[in-house]
Structure formats: C-alpha cells, structure tokens
Amino acid sequence: MLKVGVIFGGESVEHEVSIITAVQAMSFLDKNKYSVIPIYIGKDRNWYTGECLKSMETYKDLSDIPKKTKEVTLTRRGTDFVLQKKKGIFNSIYCNIDLAFPIVHGKGVEDGSLAGYLETIGIPFVGPNTISAAIGQDKIIQKEVMKAAGVNVVDYIWFYDFEYKENEEEILKRIKKLGYPAIVKPARLGSSVGIEIAKNDKEIKKIIEEAIKYDEKIIVEKVVENLQEVDCAVVGSPSSMECSLIGEMFTDNDFLTFEDKYIGEGGKGGKKAPAKSSGKLSLSTLKIPADISKDVEEKIYDYSKKAFHALNLSGVTRFDFLVNKKTKEVYVNEPNTIPGSFSFFFFTPKGKKYPKLLDEMITTAIKEYKNHSRKITSFESNVLSTYDGSKGCKGKMKM
C-alpha cells in the first residue's frame, strides 16, 4: 500500500482554505490503495502529524493542535523519506512515506516554496514543479508566459510597492490611461484576497494601499465589460491532459469574492443558479455546464490546454476565464495550480468522481517522477578531486 503524506496549511492567508481542501481530499482517497498520513504546517511554520488531523473538529482551536499531535520534519534517510520527531533526546522516526501530496494554497507554500523543498530531498510529489508553481502564483509572470503561447489576457500594468511610493503620480497616470473601472490585485495571492475594483481616481489610491498590505507586487487590470466569469479545470500533465466541463459562477458582487468561492450565498446574498454537481465549494452560485456558445466553449478549451502546456503544469489546475458576453471575447484571468477541492465538481458530471480524480493525480506524479529519474541530473565524476586551491591565487590576503 502506497504511503501518501498529505501536506497542508502553511503561513498563508489561505491557511484555512487549505485545511478544508486537505481534510476533504483525505476522506476521498481510496483506503484500499493508499495509507494516508496527514502533515499539517501550522501558522508558526512547524510541521505536525497525527490521525486527529484528518478531522475538521481538530481545527476549531488551532492553538491546541501541538498538544494533540507530534511535531516532525520531513527528511531523507538513504532511499527512504521519513517523518522524524523533533522533540526528545533522539530524533526518532515517526513513520516513512512514499509520496508527498501538497494541498496548499497561497504565497509561501503554493508558490513553489514547498515544491522546491520536496524536489531538494528528492521525494515524488503531486502537482506542479518549483518553477511552474512559482509562475502559477505570480499573476504578472504567468500572463507574460501565456501571451507568448498565444493565450488571450486582459490589458494590465504592474509595479512594486516601493515604485508606487516613489512614483505615485506616474503610476496613477498609467492606470488612468489603462482606463476605469480597473481591478487591483496583490500579484501573488489567491482566493480573491486583497482584490478590489476602483471606479475612479478617488478610489484607486485607497485600494492600492490596501493591496500593498498583502504583497510587494501589484497588478492593475482593465475590467472586462459585459462580464461572464467561467472556469475550466485540467487534469494530467503536458504530455497527457483532460479538460473538465466548463462551469459558471454567479455573484451579486463586482467580481467573485472569497465569500463567493468558499462561504457561499454570493457575499451579498448570492444569485442562485441550478447546480448540476455536488461539493463543498459555494455550489449554490455555480452552474455546470456554463451557459455559453459553442465558439466560446471551443476557445476556452483551446486556451486551457495551451496555458496548461506553456506553464508546464501537473495535477489539477483550474483556469478562471473572463468572457465579454456581447463581443464573445475570451480572456484567461489566471490559473489556480492547486484549486480548492481540486475542482472535482467540474469533473463529476463527466463521470470522473473525486476518488478517481485523486487517483489520476497520484498516478501522474509517479509517472513524472520515473521519467525525471531517467534524466541526467548530476555527474558521477568529482571535478574537485583534482582542484588545487593555491593555483590562480595572485597573492596572499593581507589582514
């Protein structure tokens, strides 16, 4: 039986969303195929494990978790990957795992930070690699990559927080040229955190100041007129991918808020739409399939595959799309490289239930790991064996 370490949490504003997704996924993993080991990263950045972490009841008081669990580190011993206890006289092994399954959201974890650590110790893991995860979290870089791949994105400008403080007037002129209404976003956050729409010069300053609280990089985009927001998920890898059905989110707000996505009832009350799927996301505001024309549908599928390929993604990614209902113009808003609930409800109507989706993600991770293992990543020879540090020195350092 494959031992799967599900890693979640982290010092992120999406900490709680990560917990919800992880606990849900752990309950759906096939118990006949996988032994599930929960690995929770607290807001204090310490790692914990224990069976109680599989229950949502455990998270009602986050400060109580260290008392109920074992504090551990994930490390490598020979060819084994082990969870090693941190406390005690000896660094004893709690258990070993065969594969890591990161279920994290937001800056500091989903942005390649965690993937980089897992790649460093060499453990196979589900989801995008370090570079793909980092690009997928940065709304600016991802747009540049997607544009180069022929994927349509909205007009935008971006800047660092220090640039705004030093050249506020110049940046405000660029935003005015872009045009109002404009949407302001922290560049590397998800779940609509810190995002707000400015309708004029008066509003923009306050909104930028708020966004700067969350990130050093800020992106400002032109709002799409006659807006229809739809989503399409992709599972697999660049060599083999499958698109989900396309879903449409409804809201009474100007854009899909954190509340729309995770709490339900559309923030201000929510415009209910008939949902043809089930799950924990705010499905009262979700309709699958979306009410779109065949031309728009084909364009969304084309852009989804092109973007997934260009960003070299793996696992499940949900792409958010912006559609001008009048002109039928389609734009990719952003990829969500580890989406909430892995967007399983987009696949369920196609007959791919959540356990099967998770199983495919693990199978893809193992396949990619084996393929990577066949590549040359280092040389057996040691160039330092004949190195003479004295050669090439022009003189002794004077103290």
Broad structural category: alpha+beta
How would you describe the shape? globular
| Number of extended strands | 16
Assembly form of the protein:
single chain
Assign the CATH topology of the largest domain: D-amino Acid Aminotransferase, Chain A, domain 1
Overall average residue pLDDT: 88
What is the gyration radius calculated from CA atoms? 23 Å
- Give, in spatial order, the strands making up the sheet with the most strands: 6-5-4-3-2-1-7
Tally of separate helices: 13
Secondary-structure element pattern, one letter each: EHEEHEEEEHHHEHHEEHEEEHHEHEEHH
CATH architecture name of the largest domain: 2-Layer Sandwich
The helicity comes to: 25-40%
For the biggest sheet, the summary is: 7 strands, mixed
Distance between the termini: 61 Å
Q: What fraction of the residues are assigned to beta strands by DSSP? A: 25-35%
Unreliable segments of 5+ consecutive residues: 255-282
CATH homologous superfamily designation of the largest domain: ATP-grasp fold, B domain
CATH C-level of the largest domain: Alpha Beta
